[in-house]
């Protein structure tokens, strides 16, 4: 959300995000970014997610090893409410085992898989 605020030159929201440690507040503030352009955001957001996750998994050996242990497996954000970053299904839904039945784009899973092959 910080990168979103920076992308759209919303300095006030960017500062508020930086001083907060609460992800729910970050999401709330991200919805308030002035000058938001959905098309531009969709062009940039996955790279921002990749960069953040790359930093996270390369700086912590335990997290890196956990991610590498998933090699050969599909990764998914099992959220019934998110059809962009997630698969649009809950973890308890039996359709989760069949990728063709996923209702979402799964950008979160794709980003993590990209990080996995890069590190």
Brief account:
The chain has 119 residues and is mainly α. Helices cover 55% and strands 0% of the residues.
Describe this structure in words.
- This protein is mainly α and about 120 residues long.
- It is built from six helices and no strands.
- The protein has helices at about 1-5, 10-20, 25-30, 40-60, 60-70, 105-119.
* Separation of the first and last Cα atoms: 24 Å
Structural class from helices and strands?
mainly alpha
Poorly predicted sequence stretches spanning 5 or more consecutive residues: none
Shape: globular
Task: Pick out its properties.
about 120 residues, about 0% strand, globular
What's the structural blueprint in terms of helices and strands?
Blueprint: H1 2-7, H2 11-19, H3 23-30, H4 38-59, H5 61-68, H6 107-118
């Amino acid at each position: 959300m910080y990168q979103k605020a920076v992308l759209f030159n919303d300095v006030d929201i960017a500062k508020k995000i930086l001083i907060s440690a609460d992800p729910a507040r970050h999401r709330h503030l991200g919805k308030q970014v002035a000058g938001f352009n959905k098309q531009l955001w969709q062009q940039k957001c996955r790279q921002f997610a990749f960069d953040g996750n790359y930093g996270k998994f390369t700086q912590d050996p335990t997290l890196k090893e956990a991610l590498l242990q998933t090699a050969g497996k599909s990764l998914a954000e099992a959220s019934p409410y998110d059809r962009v970053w997630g698969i649009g299904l809950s973890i308890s839904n039996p359709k989760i085992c069949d990728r063709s039945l996923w209702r979402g784009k799964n950008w979160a899973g794709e980003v993590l898989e990209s990080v996995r092959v890069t590190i």
